[in-house]
């Protein structure tokens, strides 16, 4: 007897042997994967004895995707700051909007992002840093109710700068170090480990906004609590200039010096790094969250992912936020990750589709420190599974399911999503909350937010608007 029985076409297991099973099936009971194998073998035990049977003969069944860099508060900010590099992008548009949020608007933004992620195959994610004005508790509780799996970082800071620029953070986002640190502990005590799907992390701001003392305090406490830390690092050249001038260290050297490397740390972007820094990342087991769309759009540069992988760095994938990517679709992000390395290195074999799929699944699970639970379809693991419809022109003929997923698919091809053994989306319909209400709330909230912040919502196009 199984709760859910998925009768597949192709099963991409991501198990230790990386088996791809043709005409396969997966049985799920009490949230756990109980059987994986050939359909004709498993049918005898599960076809007529399961509560829910999903016929997926024309589909690819695979582990759910894990997005390791998400800004929930930026869902309402799509296209608010096109054509700007990072620091003006932050100062002139993104921070003023985020600094004007009311809790109900931040919640509407978070709902919109979670909706998009579930509909595009993400079953788990890492939020990079919420602040008090967003009403964090309400956001965490919605995330839990949605059914998705999440590590949620709370921003911690005690300075107001970014790199060599002092006092540039919008006043609406400024929080005292003690306040932000203690609130992280409160959230951790209240929510960490909730139903095995919610974890609370530390999210220190970028160097320039956090003192050395506070970074070290965060590092020590995270290790004591056995929780994670995530931070933007070496995203732009200004980050290298700052740590080199002020501390005499390159960005990864600086992070290592203050204790922010190791298996519980996810460093985001990590574009401007040296060979020695890559060696440190590999030796310490630190995760790099690669966000190619954001790096390309903001002209930040191209991360040295091919070299990182060759040095056994755990590289995972992230979409970043609405204004730097315009989408939270991790399937589309896989293609950008696969194409950027050949362009950067002028080597067509700089990265393989198999490696990119690992980045979006197993490596993401390892980044969140839950690879013992999810990231692959294996007996005994929790059932985070998505079903991708390949019966479409752009995925035919299905000569290579891995290549097609990375180079040809998009999130809209995902038709079913199972998270922690619960059917959360079926036939592209969300089952845990009302999609239409979320979109309507987001539209109203965006209007109010932009008006209050004094930022025009008119499209920034070079063509006449009539």
TrEMBL record:
Keywords: Hydrolase, Metal-binding, Zinc
Domain Amidohydrolase-related positions: 60-424
InterPro entries, per the entry: Amidohydro-rel, Metal-dep_hydrolase_composite, Metal_Hydrolase, MTA/SAH_deaminase
Cited CDD domains: ATZ_TRZ_like (cd01298)
Key word rRNA-binding present: no
GO MF entry, a single one: deaminase activity
Pfam families referenced in this protein's UniProt entry, alphabetically: Amidohydro_1
Domain of life: Archaea
Keyword Transmembrane annotated: no
The protein's name: Amidohydrolase
Organism expressing this protein natively: Desulfurococcus mucosus (strain ATCC 35584 / DSM 2162 / JCM 9187 / O7/1)
Lineage start: Archaea, Thermoproteota, Thermoprotei, Desulfurococcales, Desulfurococcaceae
